[in-house]
């Protein structure tokens, strides 16, 4: 895939300012793109402010992002920042929106999805949804890796082999950032010619194992507040750090170069 949807002057401007040439493709175009056959693995990253912060200090995470076919804006803070600082109006395509939109379009007899989920219950629920739509159970892969799997090379190699042996066309990683992206990058040479999505809690939302913020909160850009209230001890420090990063960017900080426009 050569077109990341962020080419030309706009892509270069975004890259100079944020170190990332964000995709300008809306959700529908991305879903259509992800239904096309590919000759090599294609990694899609959905970037929120927390990802931006981790990219500044995590070289392995930067390497994963550098392998991406495209990077979307996952959250309105980045969209508002880019509009204010560069005059660019970028579409917001979150993992929590992209995953269910694509899941609904997967085709029995054509697509062979593989779900790496935070729990076996979540993976099984997604599998059951597709079987109810006519998918052959043998054409669906499910996995819930153990804690620390990203550091277990033997397990990682075996999981990559299972993904490849299924003939996977769509790999969905739902075990959190940065471990999902870093695991994919470290095993990229073992991946099949598939569309690969690291979409975190989106698998839990679509399997109904976690409750997503109600629609009215999403429309008001308050989804972060809903998540923080559900997991305050984990997310309050994270959001405080993210807010500090935003403040430094507003003050003029240039970010690490990670993902340039693709020719």
Key terms:
263 residues; 10% strand; alpha/beta; 49% helix; single chain; globular; 6 strands; 2 domains; glycosyltransferase; 6-stranded parallel sheet
* Lateral arrangement of strands in the main beta sheet: 2-1-6-5-3-4
What is the overall silhouette? Answer: globular
Q: Number of helical runs?
A: 13
The structure class reads: alpha/beta
- The chain-level mean pLDDT equals 91
Query: Percent range for helical residues?
Result: 40-55%
Q: End-to-end span in angstroms? A: 10 Å
Radius of gyration: 18 Å
Order of helices and strands: HHEHHEHHEHEHEHEHHHH
Keywords: Glycosyltransferase, Transferase
Pfam families: Glyco_tran_WecG (PF03808)
Protein name: WecB/TagA/CpsF family glycosyltransferase
InterPro entries: WecG_TagA_CpsF
């Amino acid at each position: 895939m050569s077109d990341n949807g962020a080419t030309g002057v706009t892509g270069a401007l975004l890259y100079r300012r944020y170190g990332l040439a964000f995709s300008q493709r809306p959700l529908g175009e991305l879903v259509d793109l992800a239904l096309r056959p590919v000759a090599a693995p294609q990694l899609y990253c959905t970037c929120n402010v927390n990802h931006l912060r981790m990219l500044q200090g995590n070289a392995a995470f930067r390497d994963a992002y550098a392998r991406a076919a495209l990077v979307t804006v996952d959250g309105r803070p980045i969209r508002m920042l880019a509009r204010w600082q560069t005059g660019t109006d970028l579409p917001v395509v979150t993992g929590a929106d992209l995953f269910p939109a694509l899941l609904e379009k997967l085709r029995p007899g054509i697509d062979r999805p593989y779900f790496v989920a935070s729990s076996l219950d979540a993976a099984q629920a997604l599998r059951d949804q597709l079987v109810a739509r006519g998918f052959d159970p043998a054409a669906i892969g499910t996995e819930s890796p153990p804690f620390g799997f990203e550091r277990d090379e033997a397990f990682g190699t075996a999981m990559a082999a299972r993904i490849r042996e299924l003939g996977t066309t769509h790999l969905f990683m739902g075990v959190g950032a940065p471990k999902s992206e870093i695991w994919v990058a470290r095993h990229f040479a073992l991946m099949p010619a598939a569309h690969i999505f690291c979409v975190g809690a989106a698998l839990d939302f679509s399997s109904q194992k976690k409750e997503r913020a109600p629609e009215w909160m999403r429309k008001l850009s308050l989804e972060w507040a809903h998540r923080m209230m559900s997991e305050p001890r984990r997310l309050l420090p994270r959001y405080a750090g993210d807010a500090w990063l935003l403040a430094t960017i507003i003050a003029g900080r240039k970010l690490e170069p990670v993902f340039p426009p693709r020719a």
